[in-house]
Amino acid sequence: MNVPCVRVPREEGEATRRLLADADLLDHGYDIVVDADVLYIPVVDAERVPDGYDVVDHDAPAREERRLPADVLGFEPSYERLGDIVIVDEDDPERARAIAEALVTSDIRAETVVNRASKIKGELRVRDWDVLVGDDTETVHREYGFEFLLDISTVYFSPRLATERHRVVEQVQAEERVFDMFAGVGPFAIPCAARGAEVVGVDLNEAAVDYLRANAERNGVADRVTAIHGDVRDVAADYIDWADRVVMNLPHSADEFLDTAVAVASDDCVLHLYDIQHEDDPFGPGLAAVRAAAEPEYDVEVLEERVVRSYAPHEYNVCLDARLTRRE
Question: Can you tell me which residues the record assigns to a coiled coil (predicted)?
Fold first, then answer.
């Protein structure tokens, strides 16, 4: 039967499916169709699909009845997937365990189910987890055609930022020099290298750097990725005036590292500064901090101001893209 579908390249399928799911746009009555290198994802309302997506009518088969967690529980639980790990976020341990049991008895593929047991904490930005099903917190996450091996007990990773990472990566040109100041397991660094850039990725978390090296090998870009364990303020001394692009994905405190970002910037450098700010002025504080660090040595041009997602009531996770051009 012909139904409205979002048509996307296969490598973008999971990120697009997640975005549509977050917007309650997936039509669960029909199966996603794979046709060569293209996916057709059925949606319930073509008019509400965000701009930039290709919406077409396509023949999608009606989905066979599946056993879902809601069928077991009597309510729709909230959870997210990371590779073959399913993550729930429940304050009530008994409710969390009931959801975990429903997940494994449903048709949802889940090797491990965990419940968030703490907020992100410490310099390494890791969480505590209650493992409810299974015993392996290491998994492989696939995103836009890349694979990232990681262990959620030792590193930070958010699958919700896939679309934003892809937006930045799409701007990268071959032969660029990219300095990723808080690289983690490589979700920015590795796709940038795959576009032909030379990438330096730095992280304070030694486990994350080990995964970054492994993931560079896994994705065939080890020759273009230099992974460094250490404080980026110390590492930067070896890369003064080097970078054509700097990624600063440490939203709560990246502005504290702007002097370091400016130090590694070349004569013409694009800066991606991630921040958490109040809805009344989501970009002003970040821009003021960039100007304070870069001027008068550089001219600062705002390329884009982007709300990435809602972070908390009246607060946004935002990204400021700015070009730094050295004054003569």
Answer: none
